[in-house]
Each structure stands twice: as structure tokens, then as C-alpha cells.
Amino acid sequence: MNTDAALQQILEEKTKTIYKYLIKVGANPRDAEDIVQESVYKYILYMDSIETSKVYSWLFRVAINQYYDLCRKQNRQIRISFEHVDLIDDEPLPIDYIQQQELREDINQVMHQLKPVYRQLLFLKYELELSYEEIADLLDLKRATLKTYLFRARETFKEIYRREAKHD
Description:
Blueprint: H1 3-24, H2 29-46, H3 55-74, H4 94-111, H5 116-127, H6 132-139, H7 143-167
Helix pairs in contact: 1-2, 1-3, 2-3, 4-7, 5-7
């Protein structure tokens, strides 16, 4: 496989993940597609100055910055949706569905009380199921620093969740 074909394959795989992330943080599909295309276009313009090992994190950062710019222009709030319905049983009982809905709502409420960086880290790790290495590369962080941030994010989540549970 030549380098152009390998690069194209990497771009296709990574842009799908970036697109999925943009949708989850609240971009509509059309905006997400435009942002991904614009990010790839910018990459093509500047590819000579970008290290091959940093392509994914560079694309991710450019896409996220473009999304934030779009939100500022449209005066939108950035919201991450954590609706992930994977029911184990083929025919769940209605009570199971209601409990899952309530749990999802509780998780969403807690997530939106976290710092944006904590929300992003928890989303990348647990919703997109990226490895520590992938997230560290994506955000250009050392693995140890990432683990510390994720630990703090989880602890903050648990603290808020417990506090909210006491109020109910």
C-alpha cells in the first residue's frame, strides 16, 4: 500500500470518529460533515508542516475549534448527549426501560455540571471507548497527565452524583 492510500485510509477512519464526536457534542449532521470536510481541507493545505504521528490530534483539534466557533456564531450552548441505549434483553420490561431512562437523565444532569474538559475526557473514554493512548494522542497530553485528569473527572462525577442522589 503506498503512502497516499495509507494516509487516505487513516483519514477516512479518523474522520468518522471525529464526525461521531461532533454529533454527540450537539452538532447537527450537516454541520458536522461540513466541519470534518473543512478540517481535512485545512490538513491538505498544511500537511507538510504536520507530523504524521500527530495528524489525528491535529484534525480533532481543528474540528473542535471550528465547532466552538460555529456555536459562538450561532450563540448555541454546547451539549453532549449521552443517550446510549443497549438493552441486553430482547424484550425488556417497561419498568427496566423507565429505570434506564431515569439513569440516563441523572447521568446527563451530572455530566452537564462538570467542567467542559472533564465532560470531554469522560465522553472520549466511556462513550467513544478510546484507549488512554488514543486520547493522549488526540489531546496531545502525556499518558500520566491524562490518567490524572480522568481520575479527577471520575471523582468529581461521583461526588456530584452522590450529592444529587441525597437531594432526591
